[in-house]
Specification:
Length: 136
């Protein structure tokens, strides 16, 4: 997993095997696969809560990597509810939201994944992967 600092263009959305992890399912890591749109290879992704990923704000700050509009249009994030704005303007599921860059291990196509993790209700920790998109 790596951070992205240059402007990118999102293309296709990859198929992700499992998107939602509840409580112990995300400990010690949430593991899923995505299928490469280009070569069909199944890539494994392991997200470690509080360790993996970079703040999603880094993507849309000054529209540096991806614009807010594009993030909303691709349904990568939603506008955050008024009461949860301390997590940022754009989030997944009104929880702290992060992203990561990852390459297909077979053809090296580039992908970006976005997820959120946090306590949705007392005793209910949810990790939600909003999706993994191919980019150029
Ligand atoms: Zn591939």
């Amino acid at each position: 997993m790596y951070s992205i600092s240059e402007k990118i263009n999102l293309t296709e959305k990859a198929t992700v095997e499992k998107n939602t992890f509840i409580n112990d399912e995300a400990v010690p890591s949430a593991i899923t696969t995505f299928t490469c749109c280009h070569c069909g290879n199944k890539n494994t992704v392991a997200i470690v809560p509080y360790e993996s990923g970079f703040p999603v704000l880094q993507l849309y700050h000054e529209d540096k990597v991806v614009s807010k509009d594009e993030l909303l249009r691709h349904k990568i994030v939603n506008g955050t509810s008024q009461s949860m704005l301390h997590f940022g303007e754009l989030t997944v599921n009104d929880l702290p939201t992060l992203y990561f860059g990852i390459d297909c291990t077979s053809c090296h196509s580039k992908y970006i994944g976005v997820f959120s993790y946090g306590e949705k209700q007392p005793g209910l920790m949810i990790l939600t992967i909003s999706g993994i998109w191919k980019y150029e």
